[in-house]
Amino acid sequence: MEFTTKQLARLMLDNAKGNVSMPANFSEGEVRTPDEAISDAFLQVMGLTKEATVQDVQLAFRKEEVRLGVFAIIEEVLREGIVTEAWRRPFFDQFVETKSQARGDKTVFYIESRQELVVSRVSKDGKVSLDRQRFSEGDEVEVKVATYAIKVYEHLARIILGRADWGKLVMHLQEAVEKDIAQRVYKAFADMMGQVPAAFKHEGSYNKDAILKAIRNVKMASGATGVILVGTELALSKLEDATIMNDDRKNDLYNTGKLTMFYGNPLMELPQAIKQGGFKADAPELLMADDEIFIIPDNVGKPVKMIVEPELIDINESGVRVDDTIEFAVRFSQGVTVLTSAFIGLIKITA
Fold first, then answer.
1. What is the Cα–Cα distance from 334 to 144, expressed in whole angstroms?
2. pLDDT at position 265, please?
3. pLDDT value at position 342?
């Protein structure tokens, strides 16, 4: 079975998403399921067969070429799944610009000025003194990165017996890192709403006219032709209005449990999540507020700027341990900030 590290990483990512079309080079010689092909590929990298024992794996990992080969696969999965591959979430497609940078470099984003020039009335002969107005071209902002880490382990015996496998172990790492980065992005986006001017905000009980007024003010101030209303599923459900429940809206609720429009303004769901380490049976700590809806102009571009450094793996802390477990330590650097030169509004329905 011949394959490259990138091909194996692609197979693992596709398998995790359930959309695998088995590449021919992974089924040469015998018919394999995706999980079997991934496990066989790891064994091949280690120079082992399906009959390998715990001791065989321990001996294999004493070889530097084996350790580097396995860690290269893990690094490629994380790089392909987090840095290179587009995030498969509508929010990221709409609002997040992602770039990768080499460690030690810095990435600067340019934000355009929204300065307005004021037109003054003059006499027909033009003989009047005018104030000069300097046009601001905009600003450059650097995104600061920080380093985070996670470690996972599994008993070698469970892998050898087929109760766990290499592919799922690596994908658990990938999912944890992806979730952590996504939560940081959502939180940065929500934190941006802390300084919304009163003219662009409605706070209190549901009031159609007050909400539409805030939407109108955001559109006028930003020069946008429309807005997107962004919030969690529970937050958006507060926009249900019995007076406008036509058949289309009823069908939306029946088929999806969600509304898609509010008086001509599209709605976008912001995924809710429990903060990492914040699960409590009585009152879990949620990442996003369930009573806030953001009014985002359609000309704001991608206000969330994210940097991920592709050098992700710390192999010094990974490998086979004396207790017959194997562990992988992942270290990654990431930064996120929110830049916007347009006006953004907030709807906070509290009752």
1. 8
2. 93
3. 61
Strand 201-204 relative to strand 345-349: parallel, antiparallel, unpaired? parallel
Contact 283, 290 (CB under 8 A): no
| pLDDT value of position 278 | 59
Q: Quick one: which H or E segment has residue 182?
A: helix 166-191
- DSSP string for 46-86: TT--TT--HHHHHHHTTSHHHHHHHHHHHHHHHIIIIIISP
Determine the pLDDT at residue 135. Answer: 46
Q: Does domain 88-112+134-351 have CATH number 3.90.1690.10?
A: yes
Secondary structure element (H or E) that encloses residue 201, with its range = strand 201-204
* pLDDT band, residue 133 (cuts 50/70/90): very low
Residue found by looking up tokens 């004021």 in the block: 118
Residue 271 carries which side chain, given as an amino acid letter? P
CA pair distance 97, 303, nearest whole angstrom: 8
**Does residue 76 contact residue 13 with C-beta atoms inside 8 Å?**
no
DSSP 8-state code for residue 162? T
Interatomic CA distance for residues 34 and 349, integer angstroms: 47
Q: What is the pLDDT of residue 293?
A: 92
Angle among Cα 234, 305, 7 to the nearest 5 degrees reads 95
Residue 201 to residue 223: CA distance in whole angstroms = 17
Contact 233, 273 (CB under 8 A): no
Could you tell me the pTM of the whole model? 0.72
Any residues with CB less than 8 A from the CB of 339 and at least 6 apart, and which? 109, 111, 141, 303, 305
Pick the residue with more confidence: 142 or 315?
142
φ/ψ of residue 249, rounded to 5: -65, -35
Beta strands in 130-174 (DSSP E): 139-142, 146-155
Which tokens sit at 211? 């909400």
Rg (CA), the chain: 26
